[in-house]
Amino acid sequence: MQGAPPDQMGASYPHMFLILLLLRGANAALKSPAGPKWQTLSGGPPLVIARGGFSGVFPDSSQFAYQFALTASLPDVVLLCDLQFSSDHIGFCKTGLTLDNSTTVSERFPKMERTYKLLGEDVHGWFSLDFTAEQLVQNITLIQNIFSRPSTFDDSLGMYTLDDVVELHPPQIWLNVQYNSFFLEHKLSSEDYILELPKDSLSYISSPEVEFLKSLAGKLKKAKTKLIFRFLNENVEEPSTKKTYGELLKDLKSIKAFAAGILVPKTYIWPLKKDQYLAPSTSLVKDAHALGLEVYASGFANDIVLSYNYSYDPSEEYLQFMDNPDFSVDGVLTDFPSTASGAVACLAHSKGNPLPPPGKDTRPLIITHNGASGVFPGSTDLAYQQAIKDAADIIDCTVQMSKDGTAFCKHSADISSSTTASVAFASKASTVHEIQNKSGIFSFDLSWSEIATLKPSIISPFAQAGMLRNPAAKNAGKLMTLPEFLDLAKASNITGILIEIEHASYLAKRGIGVVEAVSSALTKAGYDKETKQQVFIQSDDSSVLAAFKKFARFRRVLNIEAKISGASKPSVDDIKKYADTVRVNRNSVAQINGYFLTHFTDTVSSLQDANITVFVGVLKNEFMNLGFDYFADPTVEIATYTLAVLADGLVTDNPATAASYFRSPCSDMKLNLSYTILPAQPGALVNLASPGALAPAGAPAPLLQPADVVDPPLPPVKAVIAADAPAPGAADNTSSAFSSSAGNGLLWAGIAALLSLTFLH
User: Fold this and answer.
1) Cα separation, 690 vs 682, whole angstroms
2) CB crowding 589-598: b at 16 or more within 10 Å, else e
3) Dist CA 658 CA 661 (whole Å)
4) How much is the pLDDT for 655?
């Protein structure tokens, strides 16, 4: 019985899915080298168990979800089917007891809503047992029931039976019998159904009901099927023993009498504190292993708010459960089996691997964006120290200026959101249209002594979605002057530094020479003669870059904020007059429509063909920042920009995530691995959607033109009288307007001002 209604599946769908399978299917075609020893009960790698298939992308328990899980995961992936019954005792795969939240049943049968008792509580909705198998297959289609996942495939895939899953010939099938007692009350026996299946067609059977598993164990003695006791929340009562699952957890020996293993919520192993940070691990895995019980953990998904310990990198969560020094679970139950597969096959046991040097034949540069700003407040000592620890190649400082000429690192001249300035200096708020169209508190309106009193604030770009960055370090660290940044960099083993200069023309009119300040600081730090570390000067102003031509060792980076689809030949010629590198945004490289990756632009190739280096950014770990084709996995995006786009450098808030990938064997496509982390394939997912499911793509972005590259010459730094004396120690920090080429004229400017006042008087 096929789960897709014939009138819902277009003839091209199987065609497109075949193409997608071929693109992903190379993962299973190669032999796997002998791997390291694991701390699982068997000593082998943990199993990846796909809950309802690849339910993180496709509707749960759908044909596409199961097929894609087989091709995008490890060769021994386990497909999990949550058992439901039709009124004529046909087994379907569907998570949850009611159907209305994940199918179109309420639209097709609006009068079939019912109320049933489950463990003494009333449950309202539409239930599979009120429909025949034919009614379910011919009339009902599946929909995505999690808001963060694509709804594009809704109403195009029918319900899938267990027989349909068996016909896919997966390596292993896991049948979860969540509601045995409920269906038994309605004369639909899970036990009878299972015993009628072909022998050993199921590798695992799990259930939260003790008596059901005990009865089944007595009848499957010669079968190879493993029985797994599933734990629910600790305060829930198990129906047959009348004990809570928390109480049963204290008597694992009794479970060993009828089960080969246990399936537990992941918090049973690594509990979360109220502040969403990890508490110390429990002894559950070790205790169970000591009794010969396997331990499987559930609740893994890339698109949920994880513990802050993981910095929104889902791979780090998997590694916490399988690659820590003390234990490894025997398997993970996940909605995103590709990420779990990558953790097992690629990232585990690789933290001690050396990081390959950057280069065209190895990997792109890892370039920070305000240091490790995904972990600590950006541009602080802690963010830079973390970035160095996380193996960033290039650490960056976007230079801002105080009104008394101190250069320091901060991502924006408006420091209202990245510091506590909005509280301390609310009266200083103003609107500077040359910089931004909204009100802010600007560094050039404050003295360094005032700025130094502020605490930094971590910026969470997706805070409105509840995704905060490391709240425990919300105001941690201290602001760094440019000389302090340079001293830190010099004392480290990084490859180089990137200094970004913004708003030079505006600052010059304010009497602040940021170009002169940066030049002086770099010279004083010896970077004009530095040979071990590369200096990159970045700006969106070609005249700023021209001012640094005198430093032959420095590389110049033109920052292009506008969205483009490529670069015209004249614009490329102009770029080469000022810069040897271009930094572009992700949306100039990967075209996204409705969160789907549709194609790569010509931006990178058109620049690289002219021997211009290309940096791409900004990469962020949060799944809200990722298109669906990346599977809510930042490592897939890194692999895409590395292996498909061939970027020369990746600008990221989370250098640790990039370094973890590049340390793994899967970053080297020359290795013949049984599984690797593949780049996203443009159009692969979107072409599976029903025609018209997505809005038409917008017009392509324009090509870069010379007018986008060449800027007017910088104005001379206006001579002004300092309203505030430089802060103690600030005199050596910079060479600002007060100590720049205009410095010798300050005395004359002061005299001229006094004469002017006298004349007016």
Assistant:
1) 17
2) bbbbbbbbbb
3) 5
4) 98
Cβ pair 19, 684 in contact under 8 A: yes
SS3 609: coil
| Domain boundary pick from 314, 347, 380 | 347
| Per-position b or e across 423-451, b if 16+ CB within 10 A of its CB | ebbeeeeeebeebeeeebbbbbbbbbbbb
355-409 per-position pLDDT tens digit:
999 998 899 999 999 999 999 999 999 999 999 999 999 999 999 999 999 999 9
Residue ranges of the chain with per-residue pLDDT less than 50: 2-23, 26, 28-33, 722-761
Contact 405, 726 (CB under 8 A): yes
Residues 6 or more apart whose Cβ sits within 8 Å of residue 489:
384, 395, 497, 533
pLDDT of residue 252: 97
Half-sphere exposure of 354 (CA within 13 A, CB side): 4
Instruction: Determine the 3-state secondary structure of 365 from DSSP.
Output: strand
Q: What's phi and psi for 183, nearest 5 deg?
A: -70, -35
| pTM of this structure | 0.91
3-class state of residue 655 by DSSP: helix
C-alpha of 685 from chain center: 19
Q: How far is it, in rounded angstroms, from Cα 392 to Cα 538?
A: 18
Neighbours of 546 (CB within 10 A): 19
pLDDT of res. 720? 66
Structure tokens at 683: 């159009």
Contacts of 162 (CB under 8 A, 6+ apart): 81, 83, 91, 92, 93, 173, 175, 197
In three-state secondary structure terms, 529 is coil
The token pair at 223 is: 């079968």
Nearest-angstrom CA–CA distance, 93 and 72: 20
Task: With beta carbons less than 8 A apart as the criterion, state whether 639 and 667 touch.
Answer: yes
pLDDT in tens, 25-35: 545 444 444 56
Is the dihedral angle over the CA atoms 464, 469, 472, 476 positive or is it negative?
Answer: negative
pLDDT of 414 reads 98
φ/ψ (deg, to 5) at 589: -115, -50
Q: What's the domain count of the chain?
A: 2
Residues 64 and 166 grouped into a single domain: yes
- Look at residue 185 in the predicted model and tell me its pLDDT: 96
Angle at the Cα of 107 (from 104 to 112), degrees rounded to 5? 100
**Partner residues linked to 593 by β-bridges:** 596
Q: Is 572 exposed, middle or buried (0-12, 13-18, 19+ CB in 10 A)?
A: buried
Q: Same domain for 389 and 335?
A: no
Range of the domain at 450: 365-702
pLDDT of residue 760: 32
Phi-psi region of 631 (alpha: psi -120 to 50; beta: other; left: phi over 0): left
Does residue 537 lie in a domain region? yes
Rounded alpha-carbon distances, angstroms, from residue 138 to 1, 107, 132, 155: 11, 14, 10, 12
CB crowding 330-364: b at 16 or more within 10 Å, else e: bbbbbbbbbbbbbbbbbbbbbeeeebeebeeeebb
Beta bridge partners of 116: 123
Closest CA to 148 of 697, 595, 684: 595
Contact 159, 137 (CB under 8 A): yes
Output the six-digit token pair for 250.
Answer: 């204290």
DSSP SS3 for 399: strand
State in Å, rounded, how far the first CA of the chain is from the last one. 98
Q: What is the DSSP letter of 643?
A: I
Does residue 323 form part of some domain? yes
The predicted pLDDT at position 686 comes to 87
pLDDT at site 222: 75
Rounded CA separation 69/83 (Å):
18
Q: Which of these, 99, 22, 136, 9, lies nearest to 63 by C-alpha position?
A: 9
* Same domain assignment for residues 373 and 301: no
321 and 467 share one domain: no
CATH number at residue 218: 3.20.20.190
For the chain, the residue count is 761
Two structure tokens written together for 746: 């300050």
